[in-house]
Amino acid sequence: MTRVGDLDREAARTRLVEAYAAGRLSALELEARAAMVWGAGDTADLATAVDDLGEEPGTEPGPGGASRQLVRDLLVFLVCGAIAVVAWQVTGRGFFWPVWVLVYTGLPLLRPWWAARP
C-alpha cells in the first residue's frame, strides 16, 4: 500500500464535494467522509471514502467546468461555515474556532486568482 499525501487528500475531497453537489451524498455523509479522507494514511484508507462515488479522479471538467467548480467550492464554504458557526453558537461560544473551518473551505475559492497569477 502506498502512503497518501495532501494532494491525494485534496483530490479525494474534491470528489466528495462534487458528489455532494450532485446529490449523491448528504451533508452528514460529506462531513464523515471528509474526516476519513483527512485521516487517511494510505491508499486503501482513501479508497474507502471515495471509491463508491462513481467518478474517476483527475477527470477534466467540460465547458464551464471552472465556473461549476467555483460554485461547488462556494457552496461547500457557505454550508460548512454555517454549520460550524451554528455549532459554535449552540455550544456556548468562546474562542471562534469556526475560523479554521472557514479558512480550510475558503482556500479553494482562491484557486482562480492563484491560477491567473503571472
TrEMBL record:
Annotated DUF1707 domain residues: 2-53
InterPro entries linked: DUF1707_SHOCT-like
Keywords: Membrane, Transmembrane, Transmembrane helix
Superkingdom assignment: Bacteria
Pfam families reported in the protein's UniProt record: DUF1707 (PF08044)
Transmembrane segments: 70-89, 95-114
Keyword Transmembrane appears in the UniProt entry: yes
Protein name, per record: DUF1707 domain-containing protein
UniProt organism field: Nocardioides luteus
